[in-house]
Design brief:
Shape: globular
Number of domains: 1
CATH superfamily: Aldolase class I
GO molecular function: 2 iron, 2 sulfur cluster binding; 4 iron, 4 sulfur cluster binding; biotin synthase activity; iron ion binding
Helix content: 25-40%
Bound molecules: iron/sulfur cluster
Structural class: alpha/beta
Keywords: 2Fe-2S, 4Fe-4S, Biotin biosynthesis, Iron, Iron-sulfur, Metal-binding, S-adenosyl-L-methionine, Transferase
Subunit structure: Homodimer.
GO biological process, one term: biotin biosynthetic process
Order of helices and strands: HHHEHEHEHEHHEEHEHEHHEHE
CATH architecture: Alpha-Beta Barrel
Strand content: 5-15%
Cofactor: [2Fe-2S] cluster; [4Fe-4S] cluster
Number of strands: 10
């Protein structure tokens, strides 16, 4: 059985894409086979990304107050999650937040705003921020995540220096109407395609643990391959109190590693990013997951706290990986927090308290 995944990796490296059946076999591998899955997926990871880890840093420009009803989201219409809510950060605050992430080792800053999509004024605001950020940090990669794009907005963002645009498909087309009713799967795909057509690197991923079947997870991964998404954030549902999923716990650490491995087999040369829910769901398997995925977010998420940024950097170093684009000395080991319910972010953007970076 252990040879099966190695043979699959051989075939993929020789140019034969993984089939949906291959991806299903990875998801359904026995836990006793987990390290065989990781070893085979790890060959693909190293073939395309060596031992590097791309570190991204999130800045939540606008938090909560969203009119959309995505049922997994703490910022959605109808969510009672006691998160920070604020309207747009100033340019100065945005630059200060981004600088903290860059000092912590991030090479990409993700500027995120809640909402259905940006107005013309919103796009002007973000382009101004991006131009200032790029003039201060010429090497930084900037990813914008502002919701559904109207015609012409991707081109404006591109002209300002935006490198990537994130808009997750989140789940399979066949499951999409179960998680949100205020926009469609096709709306989301349209925005990813608009970004790509404007010459911006598309970033689109998924959320696992939303009640989807194995087949639907595979359907979403194959759709991401067809969309040619350059980077694929894999989120694990964080069941925020006050949202419809507050009691949804479908994931185990081993299951999360298999999901990341399935993403790697289906999209071997794409940036597979461990995203929200990493600490909560992978728990002690976080370092194992780094042998499959090649990217993560440093520190905090949009509305929840991540583990200490030092612990992230220690994990990268301790496991023989290096932060992409950074040769700085890595911080000393910090204590690992206990797995717990999502801790609402009370520091960083939108507060007077220093960010976690
Ligand atoms: S559009 Fe974005 S911010 Fe708004 S509810 Fe959906 S995921 Fe949350």
């Amino acid at each position: 059985m252990s040879d099966t995944f190695q043979q699959l990796a051989d075939a993929i490296l020789a140019g034969t894409p993984a089939t949906p059946e291959d991806a299903l076999a990875v998801l359904r591998a026995d836990d006793a086979e987990l390290m065989h899955v990781v070893a085979a997926a790890g060959r693909l990871r190293r073939a395309y990304f060596g031992n590097t880890v791309k570190v991204n840093y999130l800045v939540n420009l606008k938090s909560g107050l969203c009119p959309e009803n995505c049922n997994y989201c703490s910022q959605a219409l109808g969510s009672d999650a006691p998160i920070l809510k604020y309207s747009w950060l100033s340019k100065e605050d945005t630059l200060a937040q981004a600088s903290a992430g860059l000092r912590g080792g991030a090479s990409r800053v993700c500027l995120v705003a809640s909402g259905r999509g940006p107005s013309t004024r919103d796009v002007d605001k973000v382009t101004d921020m991006v131009e200032s950020l790029k003039s201060e940090y010429p090497d930084v990669e900037v990813c914008a995540c502002l919701g559904l794009l109207a015609d012409g907005q991707a081109e404006q963002l591109k002209a300002a220096g935006v490198d990537a645009y994130n808009h997750n498909i989140n789940t399979a087309k066949s499951n999409h109407a179960n998680i949100v009713q205020t926009h469609t799967y096709d709306d989301r795909v349209d925005t990813v395609q608009k970004a790509k057509s404007a010459g911006i690197s598309p970033c689109s991923g998924l959320i696992a643990g939303l009640g989807e079947s194995d087949e639907q997870l595979v359907e979403a991964l194959v759709a991401l391959r067809e969309l040619d998404s350059d980077s694929i954030p894999v989120n694990f549902l964080m069941p925020f109190e006050g949202t419809p999923h507050e009691n949804t716990w479908e994931l185990s650490p081993a299951r999360c590693v298999k999901i990341l491995a399935a993403a790697r087999f289906v999209c071997p040369d794409k940036e597979v990013r461990i995203a929200g829910g990493r600490e909560m769901h992978l728990r002690s398997l976080q370092p194992i997951a780094l042998h499959v995925a090649n990217s993560l977010f440093l520190g905090d998420y949009l509305t929840s706290e991540g583990q200490d940024a030092r612990a992230d950097l220690d994990m990268i170093r301790d496991n023989g990986f290096v932060v992409l684009g950074s040769e700085q000395d890595l911080a000393e080991r910090a204590a690992q927090p206990e797995p717990a319910d999502p801790a609402i972010r009370r520091r960083g953007a939108g507060t007077d308290v220093l960010p976690n970076a």
